[in-house]
Specification:
The protein is α/β, with parallel strands linked by helices and about 130 residues long. It has three helices and four strands; from the N terminus they run βαββαβα. One of its GO terms (molecular function) is hydrolase activity.
Length: about 130
């Protein structure tokens, strides 16, 4: 069974339905809840992929404002360097963009907040992160 590292950056943004789908697909999840004091692993060895979730923090926050993001950024840099299967959502996607040399900025129309329906498509069966265990 493949094990995914799931980085839960903030308690407001748990793995929820996505986590349920991943478990139903036969994956084992190693959830690290940063708000509860869980530590991130030193390496990605032993994991088949990684999911980094969101939170109310800003990707523009410095180390003093959001110290928990320092380790997440470093882990994402390692994942990019290793071409490691990674799914980053919301804040996680902004941090991934930064880790890859991209630019994140404040939205012109203010913050974007809201929940939308997310569904897994058949194409996910061939994706390194979402495909069923073989």
């Amino acid at each position: 069974m493949a094990c995914l590292l799931v980085v839960v950056v903030h308690p407001t943004d748990p793995s929820g339905r996505l986590g349920q789908w991943l478990r139903e697909a036969g994956l084992e999840l190693d959830e690290r809840h940063l708000g509860a004091g869980d530590e991130l692993p030193e390496t990605l060895d032993g994991f088949g992929g990684m999911v980094v979730l969101g939170g109310p923090q800003s990707a523009l926050d410095d180390e003093r404002t959001s110290p928990e993001l320092v380790g997440v950024r470093e882990l994402l840099r390692r994942a990019l360097a290793a071409d490691f299967p990674t799914l980053a959502i919301c804040l996680g996607a902004q941090l991934l963009a930064q880790a890859g040399g991209g630019r994140v900025r404040t939205g012109i129309d203010g913050p974007e907040v809201g929940a939308l329906l997310v569904a897994k498509r058949d194409a996910a069966d061939d994706d390194p992160v979402f495909r069923p265990c073989r």
